[in-house]
Amino acid sequence: MASSNTVPPEISGYRILPISLPPLPSYPISATHYLYLRPHEPKLPTSTATRSLFLVNVPFDSTELHLKHLFSIQIGLPQGRIEEVQFAGSKRKIERTEDAADDPRKEKQGKKRKRGREVGDIEELGGTALPATWDRELRKEGLTAVVVFVDRPSMDVAYKAVGRIRKTGETPVWGEGLEGKVPALGSARRFLIAASDTAVDRLGYLNHHRLQYPDRDQLLQSVNTYMTEFAAREAAQARLQARRRQVADEEGFVTVTKGGRNGPARQEAAQEAALKQKDKQKGLEDFYRFQHREKRKAKAAELVRKFEEDKEKVKKMKERRGTFKPE
Q1: Among 8, 20, 98, 175, whose CB has the most other CB atoms within 10 angstroms?
Q2: What is the CA radius of gyration of the chain?
Q3: Backbone phi, then psi, for 288, in 5-degree steps?
């Protein structure tokens, strides 16, 4: 493994922060982990992007407390300057607005949207998900994360502190000072079972067994929250359908939905939409090749028809006047 002194301070715009991983009972040798970070620059700008750091190669046992402790206690940033930590792939809580389902922009989405997607949106709302069965989540190797600070100066101080640590040659120890504050992993879990009943209920694999059978009140609250949100979305969808039954679209048609109409659509609006549609179609009669062929065929048929009509007129005139005989 390369020494931290031989590792460059930056690579491809990322600052490199060496982290010392403490020895484990299964592997009693310390190792060095490299964390890459830079100011967050997402493809779609967000309100928090200017005060966020983008992290790459986050350790697999990372928690929000680990990263907050790393940037505050171990790097030197004052505590309370980190707002949240967003791990890639983790579900974020979504705040529901009153008129979210009534937004007319939702009508422009594809009609083939699966219904299961709507249910998934409800599950992502805070308080509707089922209780977790593990007291700690493991991350995938090489995972990314976004650390959101309370303001831009706090982010700049943390980013500069990383460069200062590289110059001094210091290597923060991952998780140092968090003993007892986060659940243990691996074989260390079985050593956490103490003699007291309260410790047995909280620590070790018995905690995982307890979380598999959540409390009745907690489970009931989760179900009630989900059903309340589901009923609110159903009501909002019904209001949206009722509004769509009263408004004609661009072509003058009214959407046929489940349930009767509260009142007829305005005839003036339908006629106006039909006239607009006709105006759009002007100038497109000879756009395609088959339209040219059909037009020539129709013109030739019209000439034949007129010729036959003229022949019939001449014949009738001869019968009416008789045969002309010169003297």
Answers
A1: 175
A2: 37
A3: -100, 160
Torsion, CA 270, CA 273, CA 278, CA 282, rounded to 10: 170
Amino acid at 218: Q
Please give the model's pTM, rounded to 2 decimal places.
Answer: 0.54
Distance of CA 181 to the CA centre of its chain: 32
The pair of structure tokens assigned to 203 is 């620590």
Give the confidence band of 300 by pLDDT, cuts at 50, 70, 90: very high
Q: What is the largest CA-CA distance in the chain?
A: 145
